[in-house]
Specification:
A: 3 helices; elongated; B: 26 helices
Chain lengths: ~100, ~625
């Protein structure tokens, strides 16, 4: 009894949307970064599902790339967060609104 | 071809003085006077050549040709033009010399000479024109020069207003002239005089339906319409009623230009035009009657105002208006040669009178009111005697040129039908008034006890030779131009082949004697009122108060214009300005700007600075994009 592909896609969608909403709603920058990671991992689930069901290993290879990029991105992102914290002693993203009218 | 130099020499003087006048300053006359003098010499040569029989024609260049429209600039000298050339160059030359003394030491010396040189050029090109458009171009140019010269002392607000008034009133007439020009081209297919005359003969019976745009029916002869429209230009230029109002105010300008422009040349351009277009006017008796009646009205109006004026220049100005009326009346009654004859003699003696006034004005340090003069004949002998000669000519005293020309005029108008006879009677009565006010001026200014301001009374003396010599020359001309056989010389130009002309029936001697009698009566009247019984004028004024006030205030024409034209125009301009220009037009422009600014003010709210807002925007955009992609 194989799991239908749609289950994996649905899961991926749910995780992606969770991550998206998290990016848009949360005020803590670290949580936002976490949510971005969620989105990336959701796409990874998608790729793996496709790879399994179309018997094409390319999907899993792409996951490698995506994970690597995600890791690098986290490193840079945390560095930026630390820089922001040094500037304003806050990690509430609402406070960083200098570029406004 | 050399005759092209006649107008071009003064033009060159204008250019040189206009551009380099600030360098030459007090020696500006060294450029202007030789130019005009040479022009005069060439005019004499041209005159001789024309007198010997040929017509000179010098096409200069073609301005543009566009289908049937052919505009060119060219010179054409026939007998009429030849005498006008002599008039313009002679008077202009004498005025140039006079100006050397009159404007001596003034800061605008070179500028004045450059403007009168420009004027001389324009007037010469006007009389030399062989087509209507060239006439019109230089018609406007002399109007411009008049504006520049009246406003020569531009720091005086009264001078500036007078200059503007002259130009605007002229322009009103020129509007009609332009319409006439358009109609002439549309009807006759050409603007050249000869072509128009030829074509008009053939189109003599064509009519135009004036009420066509309104769906009505009013047929008017095309030739009549053209003549009347062109005449409105002459009404403005030659100060006929109702557009005469600018001429007396033009006395704000320096006296030399009053002599040149407003006596001898520019104002005669209207009369010249009517005479030039005589073949056209002869085809339209209606237009000719209008011309004659307008001339007659002007003649009477000018004289009736001149009798009460106290500014010596105004007296001479209204006299000019009146005499121009005489000339126009003569032309309107078919007596073109007589009209031009009077134009020429008038040019001499009126210029003389103006220059004489200038001499008095300078001698009395710019005093112009005759009530502050008197007893000047011992102090200013040359001025006095030349002024008397000029006044005698104006009054038509026997043996002066004015006598011959005025008599010729009145005799010719008498033989021009019933309208002519009525107008001749008015002409005779006006002749008496003319003599009266001329000698009133002489007696009050030069005779009697002196009312001169005591400050100046001590050193009233004859001005310099540059001013007195032109006076003497003009005085001589005021006499001898009567003996040169001018009417006979001009007759061939206006010969129509029909019976009009010197139809001197028995009325001739009668008219001449009546005219002379009127003149002598006028002089006698002035003598009685101002020499024998000096208190009488004041008594008469008290008795006839209403008439006196009317005459003194120029029959309230200016006031009428102010009420009916000037103030409504200003009121309308104010309305248009505040309601339409400020509210609607500026409002629209500013409104557009404000709308855009408001839009920007709204749009800036998008930039909240919150990164998450931008991310939301991106997400929504992606959703929309995908939706569109999936559906379509």
């Amino acid at each position: 009894m194989t799991v239908p592909m749609s289950y994996y896609l649905t899961l991926s969608a749910i995780v992606f949307l969770t991550g998206l909403v998290g990016v848009l709603i949360r005020r803590n920058i670290i949580i936002i970064l976490l949510s971005v990671e969620l989105m990336l991992n959701a796409t990874n689930i998608n790729f793996v599902a496709f790879s399994q069901y179309f018997h094409n290993v390319a999907g899993q290879v792409f996951v490698f790339f995506a994970l690597t990029v995600a890791a690098a991105e986290v490193a840079v992102g945390l560095a930026i967060i630390i820089a922001l914290h040094r500037a304003k002693s806050t990690i509430n993203v609402d406070e960083f609104s200098l570029l406004k009218w | 071809m050399i005759y092209a130099l006649i107008p071009l020499l003064p033009f060159a003087a204008f250019l040189i003085l206009g551009l380099a006048g600030w360098r030459i300053k007090d020696r500006a006359h060294l450029v202007a006077v030789p130019a005009v003098a040479l022009s005069w010499v060439l005019s004499v040569v041209a005159f001789i050549e024309v007198a010997l029989g040929s017509v000179i024609s010098v096409p200069l260049y073609t301005w543009l040709t566009s289908g049937p429209l052919d505009i060119h600039i060219g010179l054409s000298v026939d007998r009429l033009t030849a005498v006008m050339l002599l008039l313009v160059t002679t008077v202009s030359g004498l005025v140039h010399i006079y100006t050397i003394g009159y404007m001596h030491g003034e800061p605008g010396y070179a500028r004045f000479f450059s403007y009168i040189a420009l004027f001389t050029f324009s007037m010469l090109m006007l009389v030399l024109a062989d087509n209507l458009l060239q006439l019109f171009i230089f018609w406007e140019a002399v109007g411009l020069c008049s504006y520049l010269l009246i406003g020569h002392w531009y720091e005086r607000p009264s001078a500036c207003s007078a200059a503007t008034k002259a130009f605007i009133v002229n322009r009103i007439g020129d509007f009609g002239f332009l319409l006439g020009l358009f109609l002439a081209w549309a009807s006759f297919g050409s603007l050249t005089y000869l072509d128009i005359f030829a074509q008009a003969h053939q189109s003599a019976n064509e009519t135009l339906n004036l009420l066509a745009p309104l769906g009505g029916h009013w047929e008017v002869s095309v030739v009549t319409l053209v003549c009347l429209l062109l005449f409105t230009g002459a009404v403005g230029k030659s100060a006929q009623v109702p557009l005469h109002v600018w001429l007396p105010d033009a006395m704000e300008g320096p006296t030399p230009i009053s002599a040149l422009i407003h006596a001898a040349t520019m104002v005669t351009a209207g009369v010249f035009m009517v005479a030039r277009l005589a073949p056209l006017y002869n085809l339209s008796p209606t237009a000719m009657s209008v011309v004659a009646i307008v001339g007659g009205l002007t003649m009477v109006l000018g004289a009736t105002i001149a009798v009460t004026q106290t500014d010596i220049k105004r007296v001479v100005a209204y006299s000019t208006v009146s005499q121009l009326g005489y000339m126009m009346m003569a032309c309107g009654l078919g007596a073109y040669a007589a009209g031009i004859y009077h134009l020429l003699t008038h040019g001499a003696f009126k210029a003389l009178l103006f220059l004489g006034c200038g001499s008095v004005i300078i001698a009395l340090h710019h005093e112009q009111d005759m009530r502050h003069m008197g007893g000047l004949k011992e102090n200013l002998p040359v001025t006095y005697w030349t002024f008397v000669v000029g006044s005698l000519a104006l009054a038509g005293f026997p043996l002066t040129a004015g006598f011959f020309s005025k008599d010729d005029l009145l005799v010719s108008t008498w033989s021009a039908g019933p309208l002519g006879q009525i107008l001749t009677i008015f002409g005779l009565l006006t002749a008496m008034l003319t003599a009266f006010y001329s000698f009133r001026l002489v007696f009050v200014t030069f005779w009697g006890p002196s009312h001169v301001d005591p400050h100046h009374a001590g050193h009233v003396q004859e001005p310099s030779k540059t001013m007195t010599v032109p006076l003497i020359i003009l005085a001589v001309l005021s006499v001898i131009t009567g003996y040169l056989g001018i009417p006979g010389f001009l007759e061939p130009v206006f010969a129509t082949g029909s019976d009009t002309g010197s139809d001197h029936s028995g009325g001739t001697a009668g008219i001449m004697m009546t005219a002379t009698l009127m003149g002598l009566l006028g002089i006698a009247g002035a003598y009685y009122l101002y020499v024998i019984r000096p208190g009488l004028p004041d008594q008469l004024i008290r008795t006839w108060q209403a008439l006196y006030q009317g005459s003194l205030h120029k029959w309230y024409v200016d006031e009428a214009y102010d009420r009916t034209v000037v103030r409504p125009t200003f009121a309308m301009a104010d309305e248009l300005w505040t309601k339409i220009d400020v509210r609607i037009i500026d409002g629209a422009v500013n409104g557009v700007a404000r709308a855009i600014a408001w839009g920007g003010w709204l749009l800036r709210l998008v930039q909240s600075g919150q990164t998450q807002h931008y991310a939301l925007g991106m997400a929504l955009g992606a959703v929309v994009f995908l939706t569109v992609l999936l559906i379509f």
